[in-house]
Amino acid sequence: MGAGHGHGHAGSRHRWRLAVAFGLVAAFFVVELVVGIVSGSLALISDAGHMAADVVALGAALVATKIATRPDDSGRRTYGSYRAEVFASGFTVLIMLGVSVYVVVEALRRFGEPVEVASGPMLVVGGIGLVVNLVCLALLRGGAQESINVKGAYVEVVADAAGSVGVIVAGVLVAVTGIAQADTVVAVAIGIFVAVRAVVLGREVLAVLGQHAPVGLDLDAVVRDLEAVAGVAEVHDLHAWTLTSGMNVATAHLVVGVGADAQAVLEGAQTTLREVHGIEHATLQVEVTPARECRAATW
């Protein structure tokens, strides 16, 4: 039984970036959590929570890229396992939202309570964390535009970089003003920022899972270009969606004129979709007249 076509994809090309970032973040997470607990800084603990989310998100991204390239021996996954990367991005969104909720709830609980925060450790660890995050951003940026999986990890690290900046700001405010609640206020700001980033990424994930038309693809233009192919009289039942980052697929029915060369029409349509619209995998059906089943279809 045929299993689906094999494709190269963006996530696997950037797996080494994920691996290096994973190692850096995992090492720093332990340091930040310990210092946060010892110093009593909620900003540090919240940033450590984001780091923990990073560790899980990067680990999930690494596993997903491995699963995505695994051959299908069952014959059931005709599109392969590429969607594993999209699921990993969705998992990252849930982690980010969970951490944000925890930080905001904990911050609200702290308001009005006497809090002691050691600003020195906050500044040192916040500075180190910012450096670690900037290195990870430089690593992941190269793949964030190509892979939603890598983008999920990149967005998570962006949030952590903002968290590190927040920790530094909180440390300075506590040191200068002596007001420990500044730490709590900054923690809330970090939590809200992370939640907003998570929602933006979550919308992209849902668009892929909902099989929406690929971002930037003009379906009307696709129809016009296909109808411009020699021999094509009409195009209908066009569907286009994203399988995973960098892998757009489509199906369509092409009604050809009398005497048209069906094979030439197919080749011309495939070339148009590939070279003009970036759709390399398209399943096209050629019809002399619109099939009765097409006219009777209700979706």
Assigned CATH architecture of the largest domain: Up-down Bundle
Helix proportion: 55-70%
CATH class of the largest domain: Mainly Alpha
| Helix and strand composition category | mainly alpha
In the predicted model, the low-confidence regions spanning at least 5 consecutive residues are: 1-9
Number of separate helices: 10
Could you state the order of secondary-structure elements as H and E?
A: HHHHHHHHEEHEH
Number of domains: 2
Short summary:
The protein is mainly alpha-helical and 299 residues long.
Structural account:
- The protein is mainly α and 299 residues long.
- The chain has two domains: 10-209, Alpha-lytic protease prodomain-like (Up-down Bundle), CATH 1.20.1510; 219-296, Cation efflux protein, cytoplasmic domain (Alpha-Beta Plaits, 2-Layer Sandwich).
- The chain is 66% helix and 10% strand.
- It is built from ten helices and three strands, in the order ααααααααββαβα.
- It has helices spanning 10-13, 15-39, 42-68, 84-110, 119-144, 148-177, 181-209, 219-227, 262-277, 292-296; strands at residues 232-244, 247-256, 281-287.
- A three-stranded mixed beta sheet has the order 1-2-3, covered by helices on one side.
- Helix 2 runs antiparallel to helix 5, helix 3 (42-68) runs antiparallel to helix 6 and helix 6 packs antiparallel against helix 7 (181-209).
- The longest helix has 30 residues, at 148-177.
- 43% of the residues are buried.
- The model is unreliable at 1-9 (pLDDT under 50).
- Belongs to the cation diffusion facilitator (CDF) transporter (TC 2.A.4) family. SLC30A subfamily.
- It is found in: Membrane.
- It is a multi-pass membrane protein.
- Pfam families: Cation_efflux, ZT_dimer.
- The chain crosses the membrane at residues 18-42, 86-105, 117-140, 152-179, 185-202.
